[in-house]
Design goal:
Strand content: under 5%
Shape: elongated
Helix content: over 70%
Number of helices: 9
Order of helices and strands: HHHHHHHHH
Largest sheet: none
Oligomer: single chain
Number of domains: 1
Structural class: mainly alpha
Length: 171
Amino acid sequence: MGLTDLKKELKILDKDQLVALIADLYKKNKAAQEYLDFYVQPNERERFEKYRTKVVEAFFPKRGYQLRLREGKKAVSDFQKLEPAAELLADLLLVFVETGVRFTNEYGDIDEAFYTSLENTYAKALTLMQQEKLLVQFAARTAQIVRDTRGIGWGFHDYLTETREEFYPKK
């Protein structure tokens, strides 16, 4: 069934049936629950902090040492689905990269796939910032990330340097 078919079926329902359907969806689906909670009470800062914590814990769990990069990426993706303000999304993207750089500096070089994920997220953040005219606001953080990558392998520092220079050309 596609979206068009779903819309046809929903139009058949009366208001009480729609309310019951949405309430049932809310009870049975965690993603729907979060989306609807955000719809009813859109406290973006609170949601940002929740997802920021998830990202940091993916790299630095409260117990033990177990990098969970996939969970960090999922937290960013889930936050993005809530359609937050561009400033908060850019902030969370940078948190992901900053935390990954910190992880590497504390535990040593990881693998190429790890750095590719961080590189893609950094480029995505810069692209978003450019589109939303936020580059000036995040200039210091994006520069600090590049400085913090000195000595990291796999060409990571060079890539971030070149990527940043595309968005912040030297004068």
